[in-house]
Amino acid sequence: MVHSNDEISQSAMKDKLVLSKSKDVSVDSVLKQCGDFAEPEHRCRLPSSIWQNDSQYNPVNATLKSLIDKYIPISDGKWDKCHMLDFDRRLVDCPNSWVFDRRVYGFTFTEEAHLVCHTKGRKSLTASISSLVFILMLELTSYSYRSLVGNIALASFAFGETLTTLSAYISDGLAVMNISPCIAMTIGSIIEICGYISANIFMSGRLG
Prior knowledge:
Layout (H helix, E strand, L loop, with lengths): L4 H13 L9 H8 L7 E3 L17 H10 L2 E2 L2 E2 L3 E3 L5 E3 L4 E3 L8 H5 L8 H18 L6 H25 L11 H26 L1
Antiparallel strand pairs: 1-6, 2-3, 4-5
Helix pairs in contact: 6-7
């Protein structure tokens, strides 16, 4: 019986998610098995001087596989995600961006923005800035109504992201819509600010 690559990939995912009964099962361990918040497998893209069009994570033939094995180190049975060997056999950072495995997650914002290796920290930085802005907004609100205003702002943010996500679902993905997934957060943030301002105006009217 011949199995497709998708069936093999799904079977491998299920095998990874079967944790031993002797081990503690936690959210962190499950997320790690699932791919660390949708970060797909990736490796360095081979230079065009070595292979003209290296655009798929898995090699299309034995010749390409031999070249990948030659220039990209292997650790724990996987290709190095952030380094490759140059022509002088020196270990260097990926000079030609990365090639991502789309079999599990498809096209992701991590791939679009190249948020891997030395730029991986930008994910945490973006989340921290968003949280900081939200905290500063709450500090401008009267203590008595801070919880209500905060809840209204968060509800507005969730509503904005839901609308964008629904549009992406209907059109079969943000990549098909030809827009960046960060637009979902942008729209959500704008609606959150509008909700925050509206809540403060409402509270001011009640107090007045």
